[in-house]
Amino acid sequence: xxxxxxxxxxxxxxxxxxxxxxxxxxxxxxxxxxxxxxxxxxxxxxxxxxxxxxxxxxxxxxxxxxxxxxxxxxxxxxxxxxxxxxxxxxxxxxxxxxxxxxxxxxxxxxxxxxxxxxxxxxxxxxxxxxxxxxxxxxxxxxxxxxxxxxxxxxxxxxxxxxxxxxxxxxxxxxxxxxxxxxxxxxxxxxxxxxxxxxxxxxxxxxxxxxxxxxxxxxxxxxxxxxxxxxxxxxxxxxx
Length: 239
Fold this sequence. Notes:
This protein has helices spanning 20-31, 43-55, 70-83, 107-135, 156-176, 209-219; strands at 11-15, 35-40, 60-64, 89-92, 138-143, 181-188, 230-233. By secondary structure, the chain is α/β, with parallel strands linked by helices. The chain has a single domain, classed as NAD(P)-binding Rossmann-like Domain (Rossmann fold), CATH 3.40.50. α5 (156-176) links the parallel β5 and β6. α1 packs across α6, α3 runs parallel beside α4 (107-135) and α4 (107-135) packs parallel to α5. The radius of gyration is 17 Å and the shape is globular.
């Protein structure tokens, strides 16, 4: 385990931490010495992932939660602080997507995607910001997407959630920077996970979850005077 890093002993929370990008981020932060809480909706998958992380020597606390529900978020934040301590790092990674023509999307699709991808981030930030403000320190990293900057066919609902996340994140960064809290957005292109439509793409050319985890690690180890508000990630070659 890396011992000479700025985050040894810090407390991190990663949403959607049972697989894909979230699991890679939790593994990276844990390997750097942080105590990590992970949440997801599927308790079985969450516990399996936590067991795998513990097998690698990472201190991890799994907590089932649906980030679109305010009561779940309040319970999650309270349980992490009670069990591990005050949060230093929050990575809002939980996300879902529904793809198809915008005019054909159902109201349920809209509510489900926006509830997780945008409302969930709002609820989490609202829950953790007061304690960070009191301590005058903290990192909030929101995992967005290049879909938050670019339009594409069949992406209306997903893009709406990520464009909204961009705006919310940039404004929150201005609200919190005076308190010593940095809010950053990571916008990956195609990442090789179970998420999203990857048909027709060369998986060997796609970004890997570890690439995003590397970016998050860089953001939370910036020098105090440095503030990276947005990070765009693309594969070297188009997949």
